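Hi all, a correction to my earlier message: I attached the wrong file for SulP family inorganic anion transporter. Here's the right sequence:
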Amino acid sequence: MTKYPHFKQDFTASLVVFLVALPLCVGVAVASGVPAELGLVTGIVGGIVTGLMRGSSLQVSGPAAGLTVLVYEAVREFGLPALGVVVLATGLLQIGMGALKVGRYFRAISVSVVEGMLAGIGLVLIAGQLYSIFATEAPESGIGKVVGLPGAFVDALGSTTSLASLALGAGTVAVLVLWKHLPRRVRVVPGPLAAVGLAVLAVLVLDLRVATVEVSGLVESVQPPSLDTFTDLAGLSLAGTIVAFTLIASAESLFSAAAVDRMHDGPRTSYDKELLAQGAGNTVCGLLGALPMTAVIVRSAANVQAGARTKASRVLHGVWLLLFAALLPAALAHIPVPALAGVLVHAGAKLIPVRTVVGLWRDQRGEVLILAATAVSIVSVSMFEGVLVGVALSVVKTAWDASQVKLEVVDKGAGPVQAHLSGNATFLRLPKILDSLEALPDDRPVEVDLSGLHHLDHACRTALESWAQRHSSAETEPVRVTSA
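and the right structure:
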């Protein structure tokens, strides 16, 4: 064992991660509108393929709740056969970005945009999965899901079948919320597995009539993309979906890596190598027609907390998923859909950064507005447009914060009025500058000193020249402008 000094810790951690990942893999697949087995395929690839590669040694990859909404929309719009093409293209783009060493630049993305993205995903995920708990069909649009919830809840109260489904889903959420308060010896079993296991037991004992997972077989579910589906890549809508998959999957994985690094004292993440690893995994998933993968913070945290020391734990967790999918696939048919929906409602709630919002509201209210605007845009429009709105607002806020300009007017009562500009003069501060200059007396000569400016953009320079011409047209001496 001297060759593998940490085998015992990694072996134990791999079992814990496997038990956490199993219900999440299945739940994400069902919520994404694809066969449950494809969630297991992505988990297997994330463990064995991505797990063997270098990057972040302890974070675990697989199908993520954060991509559920995007996958569901893609499958609904383009069909399941096109999913493999989208995921394959995503993986190849990630490999290209990793080779070009783009990974490190993802750290420059505003945290408010990422948190807003996760909050928007969480809200849409919760709203969509509540319909599964109510045993009714969910509206297609994100805003429709939110608006229709009260009516769906009232309808569920009037149906015996829906009440059973509602009770099972609510019970699953309750178990997950309360699990962390139970004695440590009970919490040896991961919360998601315990919640789903208790739901299965309740269905069998009480003979509840609720929907269960449909099983079609692992081999039958794996459908590599045909050559015909690659012709769809020429379409702008599919290309936009691929870009959205790539940016969101990459950002989520690399931000997860940063969070995992704070949990342990081992080797730090190499962001470019991690992006290559994620790309390799998504390429394989695309070739198998499976779900896209990202690094998943829930599984990664479980891995670290279980005492994992090397990447062997995540590779072994992929092996356990493979053995389960090969030997016990029929067991999936006993899992109630409302229980999986409850697991995802709980996961979606964790995506909403309540503590972050409270902290930011005290010091950075502008960041809270960006976060909220990103989340609302994702819910009301779509994932891709919502992220673009957040990035655009973040850029505008950064430009606004950087455009700090000060105008100091010195009027000694006689002689010229002196105006000293300092800081960064950009078009964002132009109204303030012009208001102050136009308030200067028309009957006195003016000297404008620009030597204190670090930056003067074209819009401000043009506006200053125009103002100087207007002011000089009065019966006074021409405005004197001095620069550094």
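Sorry for the mix-up. The first helix runs from residue 7 to 31.
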